Amino acid sequence: MSIIDKILGKDDRPRTTPAKPDMPMQNVLDHLAKLGGTPIETLSPQEARLQPTPTDAVKAILRETINDEDPTLGIQTRDITIDGAAGPLQARIYSPNLDSDDLKPLVVYFHGGGFVIADLDVYDGGPRGISRFADVVVLSVHYRQAPENKFPAAHDDAVAAWKWAVANAQTIGGDPQKIAVIGESAGGNLAINVSIAARDQGLQAPAHQVLVYPLVGNDMTTESYVENAAAKPLNKPMMEWFVKHTFNDQSETADPRVNVVGAANLAGLPSSTLIMAEIDP
Predict the structure, then answer these.
(1) Which among 83, 77, 89 has a CA at the least distance from the CA of 142?
(2) C-beta of residue 183 within 8 angstroms of C-beta of residue 110
């Protein structure tokens, strides 16, 4: 089986029983249920953005189990604005030491949320942990979201954010020759599109790309969509809801920026790390 088949959710291994979350993730799901959220596919985008998130569940668990640990992980942050494709964007710098003159590798990070929900705070843990354990500076970017700004607004902002990071790396403590890109879910899609745009537009290429369960296809009939149609915290109805609000019409999902594995040219991209989720449409 090819890596593309695996990304698309195809699996040649016989499964005798449905996959179950491991214990720590089940604990998160149990706490999320206690927070009493409403299925976001029944809500407006504005209402959905106010719902409890897995991050809220994790924070609840930490409050119950850890009393003396520094929740910041010793990482300093500063909120800034950077140049987007159509105006300023919110961004957050994470650094082991914001006042140090020593330049560290820089990571440009794009959060998830189906291009519709979530923000820098919901996805604070990822970039904070990356900065702490990889000893790097992280620039987390909040791109424009749908339905207020439909496709390809987020993609345009991601490329603009990359250009800003390359031009301003040293001003935020980053080494301009050592810049990588990381994205989760919808942000993983933005990350690989930054790499593609860098290749096609002659921009500085990411030193490496890390794609965490990235959105890279438009086929909602794969085995993973069937098997995990009712998965938690992300299910097929939610994915359909994201598509409805992100795109002007269904045909836009065939764009190579969305259907990456089916339509994009993937030659000449940076080295990559793929981190996949098992119980995931």
Answers:
(1) 89
(2) yes
Kindly state the greatest CA–CA separation across the chain.
56
**203: in domain:** yes
Q: Residue 269 sits in a domain of what CATH number?
A: 3.40.50.1820
CA distances from 194 to 108, 197, 269 (A): 10, 5, 10
Q: What is the band of 226 on the pLDDT scale with cuts at 50, 70, 90?
A: very high
Residue 273 burial by Cβ neighbours in a 10 Å radius (0-12, 13-18, 19+): exposed
pTM passes above 0.90: yes
Element (H, E) at 20: none
Q: Is residue 194 part of a domain?
A: yes
pLDDT score for 1: 53
Q: Which domain holds residue 232?
A: 3-15+72-275
Q: What value does the mean pLDDT take over residues 231-251?
A: 97
* Three-state DSSP state, 180: strand
Is position 31 within any domain? Answer: no
Task: Write out the two tokens for 43.
Answer: 């809500």
Tens digit of each residue's pLDDT (9 = 90 or more) over 176-214: 999 999 999 999 999 999 999 999 999 999 999 999 999
DSSP code, position 111 = -
Give the chain's domain count: 1
Long-range contacts of residues 116-121, Cβ cutoff 8 Å, at least 24 apart: 116/45, 116/48, 116/145, 116/146, 116/147, 116/241, 116/242, 116/245, 116/246, 117/40, 117/45, 117/48, 117/49, 117/51, 117/145, 118/49, 118/53, 119/49, 119/90, 120/79, 120/90, 120/91, 120/92, 121/55
